[in-house]
Design brief:
CATH architecture of the largest domain: Alpha-Beta Barrel
Structural class: alpha/beta
Number of strands: 14
Bound molecules: 3-methyl-2-oxobutanoic acid, zinc ion
Shape: globular
Number of domains: 3
Helix content: 40-55%
Radius of gyration: 24 Å
Strand content: 15-25%
Number of helices: 17
Low-confidence stretches: none
CATH topology of the largest domain: TIM Barrel
């Protein structure tokens, strides 16, 4: 066994801070359960003081998800730390992550504090956290733009007050690998005591993975990262990239190991993409659709003769091999649910009945049903009925060249039926207007993409829409073999998110 590098996943905290992402507690729980299957060491489940919704989600994860340590983020304010502990105290292993900004720009423009006040805050926040648990992480926000002497002083204060993990966040993605590696080495030299050193890299210059690896090379033993590299602005270091780099180059990393079950990477990536509405770019390393596709004849020839000629990763080792499920229109409920169980998907009750009905509908229209199809319909039914306010009961659309399209829709609003008819500039526009009328929720459609879940003419269409209202941005996702119906589902999913998001941001102050 090599030495361990801890994988601290912050998809549900920093990742969820990506513009337009708003996960409800059940969606967060579903992702957390998959992260536990993936084998991450810590799940940063949220920032409990941000809203009641965030608190509930963190608490549900702490109570239900087994395996990884469950962490939540807190400012140094004592009341924040108390609330943070309240949300995670029921987990098998709980960690409080305390942070405060330390760079001159943040001190002047955001905190309006001097260095002495920041040091006092660090001591009081970490000591309070330590009074609850021995597992306390401390982060000096914007560390890479903090004068080094002050950074060491702050980190020393945190260890002396009881922090067991010192994180070095490159909050604005300013680091360059050899320079960031040097900071990690200097921290280890200058800050005395027992602690694990961690890195948290943002991707503003496209260097988050490289910076994280440079940190590991200089002694970091925890990497903070997100599935698909999502996160504030350009995102965080991508979990799948850092894990695979450590795995593929033991010669460079001296046999350092993670506990990640890499065969679960592709599935985790698909789940996060689906629930967040953030599609994965085709050429994304490790989990992109094209990560193992070879276009040129020479490359194809090479790979057919011997895979390693043009591939450093075996697709199967990251779960990127399309498994075909032997299910068809004659399959019964039992076969359906036991196939899902074999795939590691837990679903029961109403959500199972609804997913089975969707599966039957799909089997009538599609010859080959693949794992990705099943994951997509199950995710939609699980998510779609997690206390959603609006449900699509029916729709029809007509359009002809040179004429406005007309859509009529019927929806249930908390079980009460409502219908509307509207004209629009094209089918999606007409549907959007009719749905807005029927639900009473106005929003502008500012983004629309359609992709297929798998290949073939009968593939499921996967539509993602971006809706904006009151300065807020949300995404909505819908799937169907009929892309017009997928569009209506996506639009309604977005309207449901908009009504949820209003509650969520009622008391928001995200880091
Ligand atoms: O980027 C950052 O500085 C953070 C901290 C809260 C760790 O996300
Ligand atoms: Zn961050």
């Amino acid at each position: 066994m090599g030495e361990r590098v801890l994988i601290f996943d912050t998809t549900l905290r920093d990742g969820e801070q990506s513009p337009g992402i708003s996960l409800d507690p059940l969606e967060k729980l579903e992702i957390a359960e998959q992260l536990a299957k993936l084998g991450v060491d810590y799940i940063e489940a949220g920032f409990p003081v941000a809203s009641q919704g965030d608190f509930d989600a963190v608490q549900a994860i702490a109570r239900r998800v087994e395996g990884p340590g469950i962490c939540a983020l807190s400012r140094t304010h004592l009341a924040d730390v108390d609330r943070c502990w309240e949300s995670i105290k029921d987990a098998g292993r709980s960690r409080i992550h305390v942070f405060i900004s330390t760079s001159p720009s943040h001190l002047e423009h955001m905190l309006r504090m001097d260095q002495a006040q920041v040091l006092k805050e660090v001591r009081q926040g970490v000591e309070r956290a330590r009074s609850y648990t021995g597992d306390v992480e401390f982060s000096p926000q914007d560390a890479t733009r903090t004068p080094m002497d002050f950074l060491f002083e702050v980190l020393q204060a945190a260890v002396d007050s009881g922090a067991s993990t010192l994180n070095v966040p490159d909050t604005v993605g300013y680091g360059i690998p050899w320079d960031f590696g040097q900071i990690i080495e200097e921290v280890r030299r200058q800050v005395h005591g027992e602690y694990v050193i961690s890195c948290h890299c943002h991707n503003d210059l496209g260097l988050a993975t490289a910076n994280s690896l440079a940190a590991v090379e200089r002694g970091a033993r925890q990497i903070e990262c997100c599935i698909n590299g999502i996160g504030e602005r350009a995102g965080n270091a991508s979990l799948e990239e850092v894990v695979m780099a450590l795995r593929i180059r033991p010669d460079i990393f001296g046999g350092l190991e993670t506990g990640v079950r890499t065969e679960e990477l592709a599935r985790t990536s698909r789940l996060v993409a689906r629930l967040t509405g953030y599609p994965v770019q085709y050429n994304k390393a490790v989990v992109g659709k094209n990560a193992f596709a070879h276009e040129s004849g020479i490359h194809q020839h090479g790979v057919l003769a011997e895979r390693s000629t043009y591939e450093v990763i075996d697709a199967a080792s990251v779960g990127q091999v399309g498994s075909q499920i032997v299910l068809g229109k004659h399959s019964g409920r039992h076969a359906f649910s036991s196939t899902l169980k074999d795939m590691g998907i837990e679903i029961s009750g109403d959500a199972l009945n609804l997913a089975f009905a969707r599966f039957k509908e799909l089997a009538d229209r599609k010859v080959q049903i693949e794992a990705a199809d099943l994951e997509a319909i199950v995710a939609e039914e699980k998510g779609g009925h997690a206390g959603e306010r609006f449900e699509l009961l029916g729709m029809s659309v007509s359009a002809s060249t040179g004429q406005n399209a007309t859509a009529s829709v019927e929806v249930a609003d908390n079980g009460v039926k409502a219908a509307a008819v509207a004209d629009g500039n094209g089918m999606v526009d007409a549907l959007g207007k009719a749905l807005s009328q029927a639900t009473g929720v106005r929003a502008d459609l500012t983004g629309f993409t359609v992709a297929s879940v798998t290949g073939g003419v009968d593939a499921l269409g996967d539509v993602v829409v971006t809706l904006e209202a009151d300065g807020r941005k949300v995404s909505g996702r819908g799937i169907s073999t009929d892309i017009v119906e997928a569009s209506a589902r996506a639009y309604l999913n977005g309207l449901n998110r908009l009504s949820r998001v209003r509650e969520k941001f009622s008391n928001s102050e995200t880091p």
